[in-house]
Every structure is written in structure tokens, then in C-alpha cells.
Amino acid sequence: HAADAHRTDLMTITRFVLNEKSKYPESRGDFTILLNHIVLGCKFVCSAVNKAGLAKLIGLAGETNVQKLDVLSNEVFVKALVSSGRTCILVSEEDEEATFVDPSKRGRYCVVFDPLDGSSNIDCGVSIGTIFGIYMIKDNHEPTLDDVLQPGKQMLAAGYCMYGSSCTLVLSTGEGVNAFTLDPSLGEFILTHPDIKIPKKGKIYSVNEGNAKNWDGPTAKYVEKCKFPKDGSSSKSLRYIGSMVADVHRTLLCGGIFLYPADKKSPSGKLRVLYEVFPMSFLMEQAGGQAFTGKQRALDLVPTKIHERSPIFLGSFDDVEDIKALYTAEGKKE
Ligand code: P6P
């Protein structure tokens, strides 16, 4: 029966990536090895996050010998990526400086990642996640920071792993978006959401309304439109979890718009370009949505510092188009 075939035709993330038609067939092996090491890191973090409450991994007051989960996750990912022998530069939210891999273990990929985004939410049980993006080194010279200060559109792949009620890895290698769910009994990520497409328009807006007094004109106008639509349409619902991976995952599957605007307190917004804005923007475009910084297409941004921030508006194509129109109109006035 078809159902049985589905059950026995286990499409694991490794098999899927090996089979995917790739723009770089010659490097399929290397990429698959790199991806397998990222997957290993995600499996470890998933297990640690699930035990966090029990094993006091969240570093309760007075616990000096236990590492905080975000520090532990970072060490696991750095070690896994270096040991893959396929990376040359690593940029982590947890490390002030980029890691240049020893020449003896060097490969051609640069990986930017947030090992545990939203980790402040662990002890209240909110879903958190790992976010990552992958660049190819520009050419075979000695690696420099320029190899990671590339616009997001140069990324070969991007994804996140959400640690929630289930452990779900969402990945794009430039050929659409697919999601894989960890089957703990197998220890494998199995394809559960093939070829995800975000609804063209959504009924949800996702922003921290607590920052409303600091918003600029276009954001304030857009949120006002969401709450009091002029065209007689029904108002949008507000859903804001405060953990980017959880808010973006809901937006990807259900549609709508996620906003982290600039405000008077933080003129470049809060979210980091390399390992929050770029990977999520890459996924949104691959799923048929779009991502905008208030000034330009997010993936066109050229970062100058590895921990640089940017405002971001991402999600359903039509919803982002609406706020783009407000920023463009504002820009014309200036
Ligand atoms: P705020 C979590 O700390 C985080 O980096 C993202 O995961 C999340 O989207 C954002 O900050 C939430 O920020 O200012 O709304 O609490």
C-alpha cells in the first residue's frame, strides 16, 4: 500500500540532500559531509534542551560547574564543524571574533550560526532554535573576513532547527524549502514537510508591540493598518512568541509577516544580519515569500561587521509588499 511504502521509504535528510539536484554537483559530497556535521550538532542540542529542566543545564543561580546551554551548544557546533574538515571560517553569535580553522582541517565552506537563538526563553519552556547559513569561500586564497562579509544572496544554503514539542530542521539549498522531523527512535531527521510554500498573504502580524512608542512612521502606519484596516477587511491577529525561530516557523507554515523594525533605541534593529536575518530571509524567498530591511531586499545587504544588526520585515509576499510601499513612499518624501 502507498502508506506502507511511505513508511518504509524513509527519506532521511542525508538521502534527500544527496539526491537533490544541485548547482554544484562536484561538491555534493563535501556539502553532504558538512550538513551531516550540522545535523549531528542539532541532535546533541535537541537532547540537551530536552533534558535542560532536569539536568539544571540552564545554569541556575549558584550552579557554577554546569555550563549554560547556549555556551555548551556553541562548543558542540564549533567542534562538529571543525571536525567535518569542510570549513575554513566560522562566525557564531556566541564568539566575538570569527574562528579561522587550522589549515590542516580546512575546507571551502564558511558557516555563520546562532547555536541557540532565544536561549533566554529556555527556562520558561518556549521553543528555541539553532540558525545557520553557509557560504563558499570566495576563491582559494588564504581565508579572510571578506569570505563571510558577503551579501545573503551568495549563501549556498540556510536553515534552522527548532527545539520544541518536536525537533524540526528546516533547510534550503537553493532548490526550495523542506522540513525534516527528528525521529528519536531512529535518531534520523525524516522528511515531513516537502517543498514548503508560504501563503501569498497572511492573517497574522508578529511584532513586539511593547516597542510601539519607538517605531518610525512606516512601521507605525503598517501596524495601524493591521489593527484598523481601512478597506473593510478583517484585522490581522497578533502572534508574538519572542523567539525568532518559533515566530518565523509559524510565519513560514501559516503565512503572515514578522517584523523587527529599527526604533529610536536601536536604529539598526536588534536582529543580527549574518546568522538571523540572512538565513531566515533566504528561506522566505525560497518558499515564495520575501524579506525587506526597510531600505532594500534583505539578501542584497552587504555586511561590514560580523555581528552587524538590521531591521527586518519578512513573510508572505503580499504582506511584505504592503510595508515596502509605506517605506518607499516615506523615502520619496525625504
Ligand atoms: P524582543 C531572542 O532574544 C531574540 O534574539 C530573537 O530570537 C527574538 O526574535 C528577539 O530576540 C526578541 O526580541 O526585543 O522582542 O524581546
Supply the key terms.
334 residues, alpha+beta, eight-stranded mixed sheet, 13 strands, binds 6-O-phosphono-alpha-D-fructofuranose, carbohydrate metabolism, fructose 1,6-bisphosphate 1-phosphatase activity, FBPase_class-1, FBPtase
Q: What topology does this entry show?
A:
Layout: H1 2-8, H2 13-19, H3 28-55, H4 69-83, E1 87-92, E2 99-100, E3 106-117, E4 128-136, E5 157-163, E6 167-172, E7 178-183, E8 188-193, E9 204-206, H5 217-227, E10 237-238, H6 244-254, E11 257-260, H7 273-286, E12 290-292, E13 312-315, H8 317-333
Parallel strand pairs: 1-3, 9-10, 9-11
Antiparallel strand pairs: 1-2, 3-4, 4-5, 5-6, 6-7, 7-8, 11-13, 12-13
Helix pairs in contact: 3-4, 5-8
The protein binds 6-O-phosphono-alpha-D-fructofuranose.
6-O-phosphono-alpha-D-fructofuranose (P6P) binds at residues 117-118, 120, 208, 242-244, 247, 270.
